[in-house]
């Protein structure tokens, strides 16, 4: 990719917070046994050839720092460019859960001023997909637009996705909430770097707003366009959608789209031994990460690293995070069990597909 830098915002919370995001930001929520949500935008940028990356951090940044470190696992531990972890500000007053808070961008404008790149690719971390950002930048440059949004035509309702309304090829308005057939904003856009600096100065007095809330009234003067794509996208805004996206990972067609071998999704490397399946264990339609020990029954579930399922234990339709133990005779169904939990012998934890049980990390049941 020529003349582009990347910027990922993580200083926002889920609109409907749960115990999953009680101790960690949305960007570092574990996914599919080995990844974090931030791995997807970060890998998309690296795969497109972006070598300079800024990450705007939230106040509870520890888990992101631990995960990203120097960016070595993404090839960003470089002398020229590389990974820059930047401070985020206090949340604004927007009730919509802004992902591109002006105050965050303004307080880190030195990152933009010191580079000479023509464009900036900006993304949040709450929508997972695998996409070549070179196509987005190419469309942006060819159109001559100030800002180009990455969008998709939605076939279902998504109350937390912003709808984009276009006329004569230009974006004319935004609405929170997407219905069948609407054009949904995938929380990713490319903007001319000098234009972004101009916008930050222009809207400095309303820095508590999201960038797109601020510019909506001036769409007649700012050339904003949309680049429509057709691919798998997984929106994650709360525990319900997190569970739904996790279950979609058991579909081979989704896996083939999301994990394109030509554009690998990278993550922090862990030195784990392979999973041990004890005699008498039974595992069907599940994803089991390294370091697990399975002696019981697992079905339609995702197990993160170092999970133990003891003999006689049953796990069905669950997402089990790192270092959990499901003891003898315990039954767990339709649940999200956060890390370091011990489900003691004989205990039954049951949710339903429409009302998933979520257990916070570090405890006995």
Draw up the topology in text.
Blueprint: E1 4-9, E2 30-31, E3 35-36, H1 39-47, E4 52-56, H2 62-68, E5 82-86, H3 102-107, H4 109-113, E6 119-123, E7 127-128, H5 133-143, E8 147-153, E9 158-167, E10 170-178, E11 183-192, H6 193-202, H7 211-215, E12 224-228, E13 234-235, H8 239-248, H9 252-258, E14 276-277, E15 282-284, E16 287-288, E17 293-294, E18 297-299, E19 302-303, E20 308-309, E21 314-316, E22 319-320, E23 325-326, E24 331-333, E25 335-337, E26 341-343, E27 348-350, E28 357-359, E29 363-364
Parallel strand pairs: 1-4, 1-6, 4-5, 8-12, 14-17, 15-18, 16-19, 17-20, 18-21, 19-22, 20-23, 21-24, 22-25, 23-26, 24-27, 25-28, 26-29
Antiparallel strand pairs: 2-3, 6-11, 7-13, 8-11, 9-10
Helix content: 10-25%
**Quaternary assembly:** single chain
Briefly note the CATH topology name of the largest domain: Spore Coat Polysaccharide Biosynthesis Protein SpsA, Chain A
CATH architecture of the largest domain: Alpha-Beta Complex
Shape label: elongated
Q: Say which CATH homologous superfamily of the largest domain is assigned.
A: Spore Coat Polysaccharide Biosynthesis Protein SpsA, Chain A
Number of DSSP-assigned strands: 29
Query: How many domains comprise the coordinates?
Result: 2
Q: Helix segment count?
A: 9
Uncertain residue segments: none
**Percent in strands:** 25-35%
Strand order of the largest sheet: 5-4-1-6-11-8-12
Average pLDDT level: 91
Structural class of the helices, strands and pairings?
A: alpha/beta
CA gyration radius, whole angstroms: 21 Å
Distance between the termini: 51 Å
**Mind describing the biggest β-sheet?**
7 strands, mixed
């Amino acid at each position: 990719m020529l003349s582009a830098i990347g910027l990922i915002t993580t200083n926002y919370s889920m609109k409907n917070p749960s115990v999953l995001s009680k101790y960690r930001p949305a960007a570092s929520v574990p996914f599919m046994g080995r990844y974090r949500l931030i791995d997807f935008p970060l890998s998309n940028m690296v795969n497109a050839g972006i070598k300079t990356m800024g990450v705007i951090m939230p106040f509870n940044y520890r888990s992101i720092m631990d995960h990203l470190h120097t960016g070595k696992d993404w090839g960003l531990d470089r002398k020229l460019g590389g990974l820059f972890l930047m401070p985020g500000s206090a949340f604004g007053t927007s009730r919509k859960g802004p992902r591109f808070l002006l105050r965050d961008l303004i307080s880190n404008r030195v990152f933009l001023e010191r580079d000479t790149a023509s464009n900036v690719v900006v993304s949040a971390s709450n929508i997972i997909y695998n996409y070549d950002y070179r196509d987005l930048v190419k469309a942006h440059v060819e159109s001559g637009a100030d800002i180009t949004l990455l969008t998709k035509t939605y076939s279902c309702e998504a109350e937390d996705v912003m709808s984009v309304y276009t006329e004569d090829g230009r974006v004319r308005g935004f609405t929170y909430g997407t219905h069948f057939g609407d054009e949904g904003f995938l929380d990713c856009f490319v903007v001319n770097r000098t234009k972004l600096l101009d916008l930050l100065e222009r809207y400095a007095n309303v820095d508590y707003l999201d960038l797109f809330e601020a510019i909506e009234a001036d769409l007649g003067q700012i050339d904003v366009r949309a680049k429509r794509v057709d691919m798998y996208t997984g929106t994650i805004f709360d525990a319900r959608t997190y569970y739904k996206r996790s279950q979609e990972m058991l579909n081979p067609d989704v896996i083939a789209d999301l994990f394109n071998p030509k554009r690998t999704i990278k993550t922090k490397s862990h030195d784990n031994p392979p999973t041990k399946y004890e005699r008498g264990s039974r595992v069907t339609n599940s994803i089991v990460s390294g370091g697990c020990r399975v002696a019981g029954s697992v079905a339609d579930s995702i197990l993160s690293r170092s999970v133990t399922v003891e003999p006689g234990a049953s796990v069905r339709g669950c997402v089990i995070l790192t270092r959990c133990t499901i003891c003898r005779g315990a039954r767990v169904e339709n649940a999200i069990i956060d890390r370091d939990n011990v489900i003691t012998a004989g205990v039954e934890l049951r949710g339903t597909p429409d009302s998933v049980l979520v257990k916070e990390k570090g405890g006995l049941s």
